[in-house]
Amino acid sequence: MRNAPRAAAAALVRRVQTATPPGRDRATDALRGFAILGVVLGHWLVTALITDSGTLHGASPLQRMPHLAPISWLFQTLAVFFLVGGEVAARSHRAARARGTAYRHWLHARLHRLFRPVAALLTVWAAATAAMLAAGVGPDTLHTLLKLVLSPLWFLLVFAALTAATPLTARLHPLWPCAVVLLTDVLRFGLDAPAWLGWLNLPAGWLVPFCLGAARARGAAHRPRTGWALLLGGAAATALLIVLAGYPAAMVGVPGAAVSNLNPPTLAAVAFGLAQCGAALLLHGPLNRLLRRPAAWAAVALLNLSAMTVFLWHQTAMMAVTATAWFLAGPLPGLHTLPDGPAWILARLAWLPVFAAVLLLCRAAFAGHEHRRPRRPGPAPAAPGPVPAAREGNPGRAAVVPRA
Question: How much is the pLDDT for 385?
Fold first, then answer.
């Protein structure tokens, strides 16, 4: 009995390895998983919920400890996700055209698994909101909670829009949307243009890594010198923009800050994203070699199997732990205290495994919404990300097969 968990894990690893096609680009899945985990850990580390006169509101350690801004450089990984998304979408669309699949069927399949888990999240939180209103929870507290849950959805909307535009953007050079970001920042920061103009950067800023990924799909940007040029050039440009142009050092939003590098994206965020993309391109080969190890590949495959569920529910997991701990034990360090010193950081690090455990429960409860296939009137390409596939010869048991 003592060896039963080890035997089960070994069996799962074998199933994943057997079900994986020989030519699978495993590094792509690893980069996608890295991007998702970066967002999750970043939110858990820079988001605090504290009470003030009975009202719950958000706070950030970056607000009171600005010297911690380099932490945001490690966990703001969205550019890598858009890089992978652009490459996968371009490859998928090209394969769909070769099969004669209609664009609407291709798009339906690409977006189905992206948004179906959202319906489960919105349903649960609609019920939770009604319950909190009935219990007398104040509007400011509700606004804080719902903002944490719903704000990550902007990412999905932008990603969906860029995916839908794949036939138009698959051959667009990344310099064009980069030029739009540059012009927009010059207008709003240098020439006092209206602030709303910055929202042009929301699609343009993320189109830069998306187009870079599409370039990889058509055979460009594969050479190491491209990766080094992006890494070194992007890092140098980011440093210059922070030091000389006054852009914020934090690559995430900081409460109370006059300018956010992320909302909407700035030229500094785009330059930083290019540096991340360069690092991702350089790591592509080493990652594929590392993931020849069955255990390492199985871990990546299982994460990708529920990537959207993990992304959507990680804030809910954090809030569930925060609320439960408050009701059971009152204010606790790292959860309910002001994030204003090293003690808070150490306490928050100790809470991360608890957040992760609750997130695993959310994954167990809601991952099924991510795996259901869309109903469509014709053949269509596989939805983005991993799905379970029946093992040949034993259709009653599912084997994990990540899909691009």
Answer: 42
